Amino acid sequence: MHVALFVTCVNDALYPATGRATVEVLERLGHRVHFPEAQTCCGQMHLNSGYRRDALRLARRFVEVFGGYEAVVCPSASCAGTVVEPYLHLAEEVGDRALQDAARQLAPKVHELSAFLVDVLGVTDVGASFHHRVAYHPTCHSLRVLRLKEQPLALLRAVRGLKLVELPGATTCCGFGGTFALKNAGVSSAMLADKVAGVRDSGAEVVCALDNSCLAHIGGGASRFNLGVRAVHLAEILASRDEP
């Protein structure tokens, strides 16, 4: 399959190991992964902050860069969700017929990593091993925009040595929400405290999610409360082949 990696701004700048892990998993399964160097931001931050004109320019660039690929795989539910839903709405707002058509054609080809593995490739066991107790946090975009529920869990259950533990209050937002954490710091911190308490009560050594932005928020809280819990992206767990 002609697969392109949409790595996202956050991963490219701060978490390159997640991008490398995504490529490693896909190549392990026999796919050649392309990295379009012209890719930039999907426009999620601009959309969330009300800069729709700037987001529109980025949407046009995105469909131009990725439009020719059979599949676009993204290790971020929030960024994948931005392409799948808001692009069409943006195009409709300004009456851009070309972008509307391009967005409709591209949306079914854009996949968050776990959805691509399970729903498109039909794979749950990717040959990973990770000998730790892991709690899975379903991020808001993964759960409420892309409606991913069982896919990440099925992949985690197939990892050798991994013990999946229940996370109390799993479906509650961690409080990050992009600019929400900056503009509503008090509320965000209170939500984070509840999420970190759930992580603590789970007995997990590692908290896992599909978005590094949320993991940065949770990981920072876990560090502040001295939980001794690591925040690790799903892609990095799936790429792991550790020994007990």
Description of the molecule:
- The chain is built from 14 helices and eight strands.
- It is α/β, with parallel strands linked by helices and 244 residues long.
- Helix 4 (52-66) packs across helix 7 (97-106) and helix 12 packs across helix 13 (212-224).
- The longest helix is centred in the C-terminal third of the chain and has 18 residues, at 185-202.
- The chain starts with a strand and ends in a 5-residue tail after the last helix.
- The relative contact order is 0.15.
- The mean pLDDT is 95.
Task: Give the tags.
alpha/beta, four-stranded parallel beta sheet, 244 residues, globular, 53% helix, 8 strands, 2 domains, Rossmann fold
